[in-house]
């Protein structure tokens, strides 16, 4: 099948290399140093899915009309990336590989002739240098759209993408996006202090802040009428219990998540952007919690503060002292 992939970083690079290896005709849209590296040396994938060097077609914008499109940019780049490729892709099925709550809605608005789906990646991957990707976790990703049943097209797309990585079509994708948003509360604190998730959960103060952001996210989700779909060992019942626990007891939940997923060495995709000197998608992660809170006429002070701290790191170009993160506990 002809597959167009927009954005060839950590996840786009993983999908492009593995779909190409599986025999699909892959073209990637990439820019700057990433495009130049892929043109010169292909995509070099290592880690959980094995070592692959994939020579794939690459251009600033897709040049061939694909039969399936994967949008693999960070959330803040998705609108411009889709708009730049709109003529080639409108009408084809689109899978938006993205954290946060907005990816499928953005694509559907910009591509009225396409059926758009979301993919929640449970893969973790590092885009250490242009064209070079290392996979550190390989769990089964989830694909769907909206809040209804998965439907036959989602099942077909999940089977097709499973040529590359394990993907399951699911009902109530919206509920799963919320559970993933809760999970992504692990991104901000290590990004602010510049450490691994293992170091954060080993530090009782930083763990308390991470826990407070996660608990606040769950509380806002509950206020928004969300039913959390099971993901990463978290489900609706356990998250509702978590939301009402005192902070000191609640810390066991993110701590167990990190060890269950073997994420001790993981720094998260937000910190990867910072290390490359690029803007982060924090406004679509912790920032989404703040927006959802305001729709429910509530406040999300912990997530607002962490969003602001990540923006401070973007501006400073270096991590902040852990004391700045501990200050957030005064808001709990
Ligand atoms: N990495 C991970 O382990 C995980 C990531 N995710 C989520 O998946 C999504 C993708 O993340 P990830 O792969 O890490 O992101 P990366 O930043 O590694 O890759 C995104 C790529 O998109 C490119 N891009 C942006 N705009 C355009 C454009 N207009 N045309 C072509 N290329 C463009 C960027 O290029 P440039 O450098 O030029 O900006 C970059 O190479 C995010 O929502 C993330 O949160 C989810 C789970 C795990
Ligand atoms: C869950 C996690 C942390 C996996 O790496 C992720 O989604 C990210 O890095 O954005």
Automatic annotation (TrEMBL):
- Ranges for domain Ketopantoate reductase N-terminal come to 3-146
Signal peptide residues are none
> Which InterPro entries has this protein been placed in?
6-PGluconate_DH-like_C_sf, 6PGD_dom2, ApbA, Ketopantoate_reductase, KPA_reductase, KPR_N, NAD(P)-bd_dom_sf
Q: Which reaction is recorded as catalysed by this protein?
A: (R)-pantoate + NADP(+) = 2-dehydropantoate + NADPH + H(+)
Q: What class of enzyme is it?
A: oxidoreductase
- Domain annotation Ketopantoate reductase C-terminal: ranges: 172-314
Q: In which pathway does it act?
A: Cofactor biosynthesis; (R)-pantothenate biosynthesis; (R)-pantoate from 3-methyl-2-oxobutanoate: step 2/2
Record-annotated membrane-spanning stretches: none
Q: Which UniProt keywords apply?
A: NADP, Oxidoreductase, Pantothenate biosynthesis
Name one process (GO BP) from the record: pantothenate biosynthetic process
Q: GO molecular function: any one? A: NADP binding
Q: Provide the E.C. number(s) assigned to this enzyme.
A: 1.1.1.169
An annotated GO cellular component: cytoplasm
Give the coiled coil ranges.
none
| Role description | Catalyzes the NADPH-dependent reduction of ketopantoate into pantoic acid.
Give the similarity note. Belongs to the ketopantoate reductase family.
UniProt name for this protein: 2-dehydropantoate 2-reductase
Q: Which organism is it from?
A: Agromyces aureus
């Amino acid at each position: 099948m002809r597959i167009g992939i927009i954005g060839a970083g950590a996840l786009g690079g993983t999908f492009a290399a593995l779909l190409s290896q599986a025999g699909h005709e892959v073209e990637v849209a990439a820019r700057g140093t990433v495009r130049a590296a892929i043109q010169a040396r292909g995509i070099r994938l290592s880690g959980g899915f094995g070592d692959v060097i994939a020579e794939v077609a690459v251009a600033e914008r897709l040049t061939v009309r694909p039969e399936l499109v994967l949008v693999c940019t960070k959330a803040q780049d998705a609108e411009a990336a889709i708009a730049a490729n709109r003529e080639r892709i409108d009408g084809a099925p689109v899978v938006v590989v993205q954290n946060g709550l907005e990816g499928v809605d953005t694509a559907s608005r910009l591509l009225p002739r396409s059926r758009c789906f979301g993919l929640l990646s449970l893969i973790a991957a590092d885009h250490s240098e242009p064209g070079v990707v290392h996979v550190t976790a390989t769990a089964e990703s989830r694909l769907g759209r909206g809040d209804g049943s998965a439907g036959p097209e989602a099942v077909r797309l999940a089977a097709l993408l499973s040529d590359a990585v394990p993907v399951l079509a699911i009902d109530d994708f919206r509920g799963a996006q919320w559970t993933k948003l809760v999970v992504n509360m692990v991104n901000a604190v290590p990004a602010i202090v510049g450490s691994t998730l293992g170091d954060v959960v080993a530090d009782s103060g930083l763990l308390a802040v991470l826990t407070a952001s996660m608990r606040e996210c769950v509380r806002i989700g509950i206020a928004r009428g969300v039913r959390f779909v099971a993901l990463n060992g978290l489900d609706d019942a356990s998250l509702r219990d978590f939301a009402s626990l005192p902070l000191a007891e609640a810390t066991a939940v993110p701590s167990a998540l990190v060890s269950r997923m073997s994420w001790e060495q993981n720094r998260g995709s937000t910190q990867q952007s910072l290390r490359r000197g690029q803007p982060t998608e924090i406004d679509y992660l912790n920032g989404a919690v703040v927006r959802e809170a305001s729709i429910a006429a509530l406040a999300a002070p912990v997530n607002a503060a962490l969003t602001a701290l990540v923006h401070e790191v973007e501006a400073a170009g270096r991590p902040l002292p852990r004391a700045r993160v501990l200050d957030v506990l005064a808001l709990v």
